TrEMBL record:
Organism annotation: Fervidobacterium gondwanense DSM 13020
Keywords attached to this entry: Membrane, Transmembrane, Transmembrane helix
Transmembrane segments: 6-27, 34-53, 59-78, 90-111, 123-144, 164-185, 191-210
InterPro entries with a match to the protein in the record: Phage_phiKZ_Orf197 (IPR021737)
Protein's name according to its UniProt entry: DUF3307 domain-containing protein
A Pfam entry, by short name: DUF3307
C-alpha cells in the first residue's frame, strides 16, 4: 500500500490510543508519573497494532509500530519535563500533534506490503470522527480558555456526525451544517463557534485528502 493508503490506519491507531483509550486518570497523571506515561504508550502501541494488522504483516511491521510508540514516548516526555505555561497552551498542543503526525508519515513507508483487514473507507471516516470529537474539542477549549476541560459528550456526538453526513452526500452535510449553525447561533460562545468552524473545515479537508 502507498503512504496515502496506509496513513488512515496509522492515524486511527494514533487517535484511538491517544484519545479514546486515554482515561481521565491517564490524562491527569501521564505528565507527572512516568509509570502512567508508560501505560499510555503501551495502550497506544496496542491500538496501532490492532488497526494496522492485516495480510502481509510481519516482524518488520511489529518493530515499526514499536519504533512509532518510542517516538510518541519521546514527544510526550518533552511535555512531561516541561513545566511552563506555554506547554499548556493551544500553540504547544498544535506543535505536539504536528510532531505526532510527522512520526506517522515517517513510518508509513514500512507498511507498503501490508493490507489491513479493516475497510479503508470505514477506517478513514472513523479516524475523522475521533479527530473531530477529541482533537478539535481540546483545541477549541484551549483557544477559548473555556475553564477546566471536561469531556463534552454531546459535542463529541455532534462533531462525530459530520464526516458521516459528508460521506453520504454533500446535501446531507449541508443540512447538518445549517442545523448546527442554527444551534450555535442560539447558544453563542467562542468555544462553540470554534468547534463548529473547525469541524466543518476538518471534515471537508480530511475526507477529500484521505478518501
Amino acid at each position: 500500500m502507498s503512504v496515502i493508503d496506509i496513513f488512515p490506519y496509522l492515524f486511527l491507531g494514533h487517535l484511538f490510543g491517544d484519545y479514546v483509550l486515554q482515561t481521565g486518570y491517564i490524562a491527569a497523571k501521564k505528565s507527572k508519573d512516568i509509570k502512567v506515561l508508560g501505560i499510555h504508550i503501551g495502550l497506544l502501541f496496542l491500538s496501532q497494532l490492532v488497526f494496522v494488522f492485516g495480510e502481509g504483516f510481519g516482524i518488520k511491521h511489529f518493530l515499526a509500530i514499536a519504533m512509532l510508540s518510542g517516538i510518541h514516548f519521546l514527544i510526550d516526555l518533552i511535555k512531561f519535563h516541561c513545566k511552563t505555561a506555554f506547554c499548556n497552551s493551544w500553540k504547544y498542543y498544535l506543535i505536539d500533534q504536528l510532531f505526532h503526525l510527522l512520526s506517522l508519515l515517517s513510518v508509513a513507508p514500512f507498511f507498503d506490503k501490508v493490507v489491513p483487514f479493516l475497510p479503508r473507507t470505514v477506517v478513514t471516516v472513523g479516524a475523522i470522527m475521533i479527530f473531530n470529537a477529541y482533537f478539535i474539542g481540546i483545541l477549541s477549549h484551549l483557544i477559548a480558555r473555556n475553564g477546566t476541560y471536561k469531556r463534552d459528550y454531546i459535542g463529541y456526538f455532534m462533531r462525530m456526525v459530520a464526516p458521516i453526513t459528508y460521506f453520504i452526500s454533500v446535501w446531507s452535510f449541508l443540512i447538518y451544517a445549517l442545523l448546527c449553525g442554527f444551534l450555535i447561533y442560539k447558544k453563542r460562545s467562542m468555544f462553540n463557534l470554534l468547534n463548529y468552524v473547525f469541524t466543518i473545515i476538518a471534515t471537508i479537508t480530511l475526507l477529500e485528502v484521505m478518501l
